[in-house]
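Thread: Newbie trying to understand structure tokens

Hi all, I'm a second-year student working on a class project, and my supervisor (Dr. K.) asked me to get a predicted structure for one chain before our next meeting. I've only ever worked with sequences, so writing a 3D structure as a token string is new to me. If someone could post the tokens and maybe explain what I'm looking at, I'd be very grateful. Here's the chain:
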Amino acid sequence: MAEMLVTVHRIVHRGLEKAAGKTWYLDGCPPGVYERLVARKEYEVAIDRFDREYQELISFASLDDLAEIVEYNNDLAHLLEGIAPDDATMAERFRQIETLRLKLDATVPFDDEDLEVLIGYHADFRQSLAKPKKKEEPAAEPEPPPEAADDFGTQVAEVDELGAEDIVTDEASGDFGTAVVDSGVIEAPETQATEDVSALEAERAVASDDDGEVLRILHREIMAVAEHVIKGDVDQEFLVWQTVKASGWYDIKISTLGLSSIELFYSVAEEVRTKHRAGDPKKEIKVFVKDSEVSKLLLSLGETFKRHNL
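---
Reply by user tm_fold:
Sure, no problem. This is what the structure looks like when written as tokens:
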């Protein structure tokens, strides 16, 4: 959810500046929206929520506000056409996401259906943002693909016609209780090479007795696996988990660090993977996921990692 909110605000902000100039808040907003944003900003500044760090006015827009802005500004709507979902307008999608955000804001727990919908929206954005930027004339030579980042924490995507880059880190993703997300916002394929590197990192962290680093690497793998557990299509190996378990680190630390939910998560993930690889019907796999109370398990994992400042 946090990744989508950050990405959406950046895209709309840059689109507004392109469509309506630097004074977008005067020329690109419907009546009443500018006043609402100013009122919110003045309130937040008064309580010093951001520790005196400057915040763009667009940061104080809800997704309902952004939906109104898109509907009001035809040039902006045109710029966003390239990333609009197939089954809704951008404004409609913003409002759909806002409904889920308000549920989180009211601390109403997500059920499996909420998580599935949220993951679906997140996947839509990733797919849309991953589309190649349109070019009016072909380049003389094809550009090489961007080099993979050393860490999954940062991925860069070009936004269709906007010509903007949105960099979002996995630290913005919040916890498992609010959303299950990829460790890369735009696209972070789980390649064998990546898994091998992560397993090696885990092995080194165990050897160094660096519990925080071991948990960070486990956290990263769990984030990548969790989305597929919810969708019922787990197919990757769990090399970090296998490394940590085989080393004896987990059995030694399970009690002192309170890690029992991690093993339970992987047991569910392994069962989903077995069913998926055996060709079991998707509907039956989702029933198993629901019966396993994955939502509660993910909330427990979120608390576990937050307790260790992850």
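A couple of things are worth pointing out once you decode it. Residues 133-137, 144-191 have pLDDT under 50 and may be disordered. The chain has 14 helices and two strands. Feel free to ask follow-ups in this thread.
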